[in-house]
Design goal:
The chain has helices spanning 2-9, 42-48, 55-80, 82-97, 100-111, 115-141, 145-152, 157-168, 170-193, 205-212, 221-248, 250-256, and strands at residues 35-36, 40-41. The protein is mainly alpha-helical. The chain is elongated, with a radius of gyration of 22 Å.
Amino acid sequence: MNAVLEQIVTSQKVSDGSITLPLRHPDFPNSLVAVDPAEGALLQQIVSDLKPRVSLEIGLFATALSLVVGTLVGSVAGYLGGAVDTAIMRAADVFLSVPALFLILIVVALFGASLVNTALVIALVTWAPVARIVRSECLSLRGRDFVQAAHALGAGHARVLGRHVLVNALPVIVVQTSLLLGQTILIESGLSYLGLGAQPPLPSWGNMVVEGRQFLASAWWIATFPGLAIFVTVLGFNLFGDGLRDAFDPALYSESS
């Protein structure tokens, strides 16, 4: 679908462009292409970031990594409790107390700016909230009757945690996935804007915003349209996450019925 849309938008390659071309105002509705003199068709660059790659690719990878680590750590802490819970939560508190930008600068200074490092550093600053949410859900589930029944039947801790506790915590994890995806895309765009994320000529939305900043007075659309793409994408994932939360919440369902 995206390939078809990109062909409709323009047949020009994203990397094609000429600095001799003047800034042209987008001629709506006769043309869907706003022109960036350095990088070519602006709308095609926005669409080409939906393959998914760059912003979405980093967001998906960082979200998956953060969810795996946060779910694993949080479920173990909530299920086992005691000293294990205390140790894990104090480690999470350390990550939550350190400013995210400080951690990002350390990682980028040590390992350099790249797509993989960007995804890793985003996961590094987002796993702790996921762990706390999963932990709280597992704390409420471990005392339920079906968990006690599984223990009485001789099920081990790993089986109870994986087959009973985490399965019933899945709605919370799914909702958190949708909300976290919008957050990671926003973080990646901010990192690219600061020059700490995807590097040009990759068509990241954050790169496109910072490249269009110098043309705000004469060509506002160069920075505005990528910014709108970030806004609409993050808002869409957040609204989707809110809808999932309402759908999975039995209290809200009973009130509406």
